[in-house]
Write a structure and sequence with these properties.
- The structure is a single chain.
- The protein is of the alpha/beta class.
- It has a domain of 287 residues: 3-Layer(aba) Sandwich (Alkaline Phosphatase, subunit A).
- Helices cover 30% and strands 14% of the residues.
- It has 15 helices and 18 strands.
- The strands form 6 sheets. Strands 8-5-9-1-10-13-4-14 form an 8-stranded mixed β-sheet, sandwiched between helices. A two-stranded antiparallel ribbon has the order 2-3.
- A hairpin with a 1-residue loop joins β6 and β7.
- α12 packs parallel to α14.
- It is globular.
Length: 454
């Protein structure tokens, strides 16, 4: 699609709905709350590892565990004293002095949909159900909460998410603004940053249509009128005046267009990140935070993986002879060891690492016991999250798992506690309340993990 088309999908993507019952005093109160804590980070890059990486084969190896538990890979020393990582992450090992590891993430959601929602919102789902459906009763994405409480004022979107909508059958909730209203949705794009012709249709005008004409004729209004039947009954689609202003601002902003222009990067930089969708997405994340975007969510894959070998996420049970260790050895771990160290280096070289929080995690970990297919199954009771930059300690481990990385032994951390820590680092009080569509106050986070903050 080469034209800037104001269809319902692209219209809502940039933002458009009303407040859904939120009052101006509450909005202002939320903004005041967001400013009461000194921020450590200006931006967050949330690298979501859909499918669930194994803690035992990445950042919490147990070399003294029994053969039925121990990874076939060796642990190697890292740049941080006392921290070992998987031998297939040699480049990441050199950057662990930037990293805080939380080795005691824990919850009870064994299904991808429920666990994914928990990880992306910091709020427990109503049930552990693989059929969990998206709903305005469920909590919004992190970036939408940030956009609601502390929106950008620099002309850039507050929150951007790409290049997938993740699902496991149905779409996983917490990828949008939910009851906060569509105006707080992340700017979502599904175009592949690794495509040679990558460009965003949202930032292009129809051929022959100038900005002056767009203002003069309000071409957008004509397109909106074509959607009138939808708008009559769609509460999601309210607020097109706000959409019009924001869309025009983006169309006329060199800063916005330049931020999304990967072609301006030297080939050597693009090669360092890796010529993969995920690699180029991580490069895009650096460009976006450098341009002033506050919250960037990059999805590793649109699918959990499962029976797929050369693409997909981290869900590797070993079905149909798709052995876990063959897959991660040839796909997930090599990509991770190229992109994550490169992103940290790039941020540091540009003076951005101290003000950019990088979060790397999945929705859960994997079972300590290796199954009959020489793979590991879902395990939410204990897994690892990686944080770097943005005000966190470097070369630090928070919490201790037991001898098999099966349960937390010390300092368990729930997803709502990680959410609170992310908000705290951004300068947003995790005790702030937002209001759902039934006007009920909901606290945005749990207990901040103060020990990981430098």
């Amino acid at each position: 699609m080469n034209a800037f088309s104001l269809n319902r999908r692209s219209a809502l993507r940039v933002g458009g709905a009303g407040m859904l019952g939120l009052t101006m005093p509450r909005i202002l109160a939320g903004q005041d709350a967001a400013g009461t804590i000194k921020p450590h980070a200006k931006s967050v890059i949330f690298l979501f590892q859909w499918g669930g990486p194994s803690q035992l084969d990445t950042f919490d190896m147990k070399p003294n565990a029994p053969d039925t538990v121990r990874s076939p890979y060796r642990p190697i020393s890292s740049s941080a004293d006392g921290i070992q990582v998987c031998e297939l992450l040699p480049e990441m090992a050199k950057r662990m002095h930037h990293v805080s590891l939380i080795r005691t993430m824990t919850h009870n959601m064994k299904n991808h949909a429920s666990a994914g929602y928990y990880a992306l919102s910091g709020h427990a789902p109503p049930s552990d159900d693989q059929r969990l459906r998206d709903s305005l009763d469920l909590f919004p994405a992190y970036g939408s909460v940030v956009d609601h409480l502390a929106p950008s004022t620099n002309g850039m979107p507050t929150s951007v998410a790409y290049p997938h909508v993740i699902r496991d059958g149905s779409i996983v909730p917490a990828q949008h603004a939910s009851f906060l209203g569509k105006r707080h949705d992340p700017l979502l794009f599904l175009e592949d940053p690794n495509d040679a012709n990558f460009r965003l249709p949202e930032l292009s005008l129809p051929q022959g249509l100038s900005i002056d004409r767009l203002h003069r004729r309000r071409e957008m209004q004509r397109l909106v009128d074509q959607q009138s039947r939808l708008l009559e009954y769609s509460a999601e689609a309210r607020g097109f005046d706000d959409y019009y202003d924001r869309a025009i601002s983006m169309l006329t902003s060199d800063r916005v267009r330049n931020a999304f222009d990967l072609s301006s990067e030297p080939d050597s930089v693009r090669d360092r990140y890796g010529r993969t969708s995920y690699g180029q997405s991580c490069l895009m994340a650096r460009r976006l935070v450098e341009s002033g975007v506050k919250f960037v969510t990059v999805y590793f894959s649109d699918s959990i993986g499962g029976r797929r070998v050369n693409d997909g996420g981290w869900d590797t049970h070993g079905f149909d002879n798709t052995r876990m260790y063959e897959i991660v050895n040839n796909y997930q771990l090599p990509i991770t060891d190229q992109t994550l160290p490169t992103l940290l280096d790039d941020l540091e070289e540009r003076g951005l690492l101290d003000e950019t929080l990088v979060v790397w995690m999945g929705e859960f970990g994997r079972t300590p016991e290796i199954n009959k297919n020489l793979s590991r199954d879902h395990w939410p009771q204990c897994y690892t999250a990686l944080l770097a930059g943005g005000g966190v300690k470097g070369g630090y481990v928070y919490g201790k798992s037991d001898e098999r990385a099966k349960f937390p032994e010390e300092k368990p951390v729930k997803p709502e506690d990680l959410a609170a820590t992310i908000f705290q680092l951004l300068g947003i009080d995790p005790g702030t309340e937002i209001y759902d569509r039934n006007d009920r106050p909901l606290v945005i986070g749990g207990n901040t993990i103060h020990d990981v903050i430098a």
